[in-house]
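Subject: M18 family aminopeptidase structure
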Amino acid sequence: MQELNTFNQDLMAFLAASPTPFHAVSEMVSRLQAAGYQALNEAEAWDLTPQGRYYVVRNGSAIIAFSNLGGSPVENGFRMVGAHTDSPCLRVKPNPELNRNGYFQLGVEVYGGALLNPWFDRDLSLAGRVSFKTKAGDIKSALINYAKPIAVIPSLAIHLDREANNTRSINPQKDIPPIVMQAENDQQDFRAMLLAQLKKQQPNSDAAKILDYELSFYDTQPPAIIGLEQDFLASARLDNLLSCYIGLQALLSNHDQNALLVCNDHEEVGSASSCGADGPMLKSVLERIVPDAEQLTRALDRSMMVSADNAHGIHPNYADRHDANHGPQLNRGPVIKINHNQRYATNSETSALIRHLAEQIEVPIQSFVVRTDMACGSTIGPITASGLGVKTLDIGVPTFAMHSIRELAGINDGHYLYQLLAAFYQQHSVAIAN
């Protein structure tokens, strides 16, 4: 129980420190450096040592960390885990200033498939990356986080919409611009506000002008263990920072195998970017680890990828939305996700490997298959499998309220998946005899 409590307390600290993908990667870098991992620059030559531990960051929002501890990758392959750093949210538009009826608001764009209703009446803050010009004329970037509540999206009172509980829908252009403050005039300059905040957070930045930004609103309510018996973990961004944290902790526990963790950005919007799973980042890193094309193909044939992304737990109020035989329960173990139309990359062989491993370490396993009459989501699993030709499995922690501003998981499942991935990283072989 002490180990479980320590795991969940550290998980909540990670979630609280990671309001955006940029902050999540920064937090992961700090933890990797503390564990002795060395930074690599993609613009420079790499001199990798046989026992080395390394990481590389792209765009500040995606990261790959790996260790060469298991001998030749050509002979032993890689144990790889993949996740993603982004979550559905509200992103600030380039020209966001809205002055209406004495209130200053910021125009926002919905990022990903956000569940919008829960964003109303929340204490919101703002964080992300800003790019600025210094007094010397250089262009730099920095992370920014207001941390305290600075905005809110108030609901319309039911007295003004008597059918709200029956018919209210949300227009993302009109209904969700957050209110930031009262304003006497329309002279507010959002970039000037950002400059003041940057100087407050980083007095030595020498910033003279904000040129651009990528900023997300987020809920300031911290993660919490809840429930009468403390059964549940409630937090923002469990999809998919929960998997990022689990993958990182599992990687840091590895001491004798070739292990790799990739946390891509932009999964929630299709993964098609320079730092997304449908981009070249992972392949280019693997090609630099194993430069010879034939040897890399051999290494990948001896490798396996576990794509870790949350699964839909069966909701007691909406049990009919699940296939009756495939309704994962919270606190009953990680969920292998299966879709024969290749929305998930799991096949019978990769599933057998993980099920066998779970039996060995006594971790419970569940299965998820979407109802046949419903559309199925997807993950970075099929994208990575098709891009690299590596055998892949999709797995995740069961959760409620996926894509809400606050999601719910069981307190045991994250630790179960950590145990499973830590054991996976230690496997001497992922070959399947035919």
